[in-house]
Amino acid sequence: MQLIDTHVHINFDTYKLELEAIRERWREAGVVRLVHSCVEPEEFAGIQAIADRFPEVSFAVGLHPLDAHKWQGETASQILKLASSDARVVAIGETGLDFYKADDRELQFKVFEAQLAIAQQLSKPVIIHCRDAAAPMAEMLRNFWQTRGPVRGVMHCWGGTPEETQWFLDLGFYISFSGTVTFKKALQIQESACKVKSDRLLVETDCPFLAPVPQRGKRNEPAYVRYVAEQVAKLRGVSLETLCQQTTENACQLFGLSL
């Protein structure tokens, strides 16, 4: 049984002294590949070094919407250059819209659109962060599709309603569920997990955040993606083996991974 954790941040300092042990745990849990997300281009060298240590790690490069203020005139060309510099770069991101706390909406739109264009130019998927922004996100993606052509990718750590989920499925996106799907009160997320077609479904940890039950409240890590898979399989009424096979095949398809 094989799993792919499609969204991790194991470059964070909280892991620095025990990465080898954490790797052993993810391997014991059946995790065979990881996609390491990127919050800002300055992380690239550190993420690249982790991939040098652990060949099962592929990664992305991009700028998170809560860091949109860091966008400079040369940032687009920097992301483009970095994404083209290493064959292990399988996506652009994470990028997107986050209106939960930030009030720089116009800047976030600009930065997100620029990264969509890079993903399209390089024929790479985009890893999308969307918080309290589903309607404007869907509208923006529809407009981008109509004016500039299609772009593919994943709505990561998805927390939307079933209706919102359908918006992004209709746009051709994959939907990735994290530890939040295991939370007792996350009924909308659980309903959405039942709605996604089997060929568009992914699982992730988004570690070190959002550790799933029964590890909730602890530091998250890639091995815990198995708990996410178990919950999604239970919700969908399929075996864990079937769920693992489906999500692993989907991750390989979206990110161009090989096992």
| Helical percentage | 40-55%
Strand order of the largest sheet: 1-2-3-4-5-6-7-8
Low-confidence residue ranges:
none
Radius of gyration in whole Å, from Cα?
A: 17 Å
Give the CA-based shape. Answer: globular
CA distance, first residue to last residue: 12 Å
What's the total number of strands? Answer: 8
Proportion in β-strands: 15-25%
Give the SSE order as H and E letters: EHEHEHEHEHEHEHEHH
Annotation field: number of helices: 9
* Average pLDDT score: 97
Profile the largest sheet: 8 strands, parallel
- Could you say which structural class the secondary elements and strand pairing correspond to? alpha/beta
Could you characterize what this model shows?
The chain has 259 residues and is of the alpha/beta class. Helices cover 42% and strands 17% of the residues. An eight-stranded parallel β-sheet has the order 1-2-3-4-5-6-7-8. Strand 3, helix 3 and strand 4 (89-98) form a beta-alpha-beta unit. The chain is globular, with a radius of gyration of 17 Å. The model has no long low-confidence stretch (mean pLDDT 97).
Which helices and strands occur, and which strands form pairs?
Elements: E1 3-8, H1 19-28, E2 31-36, H2 44-53, E3 57-61, H3 75-85, E4 89-98, H4 105-122, E5 126-131, H5 134-148, E6 153-155, H6 162-170, E7 174-177, H7 187-195, E8 201-203, H8 225-236, H9 240-255
Parallel strand pairs: 1-2, 2-3, 3-4, 4-5, 5-6, 6-7, 7-8
